[in-house]
Amino acid sequence: MEVRLGEVIELNPRETIVKNTIARKISMNDLEPFTRDISTFSYERYSGGTKFRNNDVLLARITPCLENGKTAFVNILDQDEVAFGSTEYFVLRGKKDLIDPYYLYYLSISQDFRNVVIRSMTGTSGRQRAQKDSILNYKLNLPNIQYQRAIAAKLKVLDDKIRLNKQINDNLAA
Hints:
Elements: E1 2-4, E2 9-11, E3 22-26, E4 42-45, E5 50-52, E6 57-60, E7 71-73, E8 83-85, E9 89-94, H1 101-108, H2 111-119, H3 132-136, E10 139-141, H4 145-173
Parallel strand pairs: 3-8
Antiparallel strand pairs: 1-10, 2-9, 3-4, 5-8, 6-7, 6-9
């Protein structure tokens, strides 16, 4: 069925971290281009930034990070943990039973979606930012949730293999 993405996701959902609390921080430098998994992070005192949970998608909204593929799937947090990061992220959270979180991630790295979001960028040269309406109004033919899960499962196997191969290479290098 054709939907606007804003009907099946929350964009920048509200989360809370008490100021000055030590929390996990995932900065823009922690995201590798076109890589699902987040491999590095730090613990820092929270004083501001975008907040998110496991199963959220982090999408860079500033140039050149968006064009360079800085997008990741949050899957490294403890249960009920809220982390924070750059204010230059859009956080995409799928609405339960409407869009699979992994399907949402794979949609967010698709060329069609990325082109729409990149074309929405406004601002001065070198500091352009994507507009949230380009995400919320993005139209797609969304399959039913079971089919989404089946598609995402096949793609997830490939990313899991990439992660495993990276771990093997890191061990061999050490």
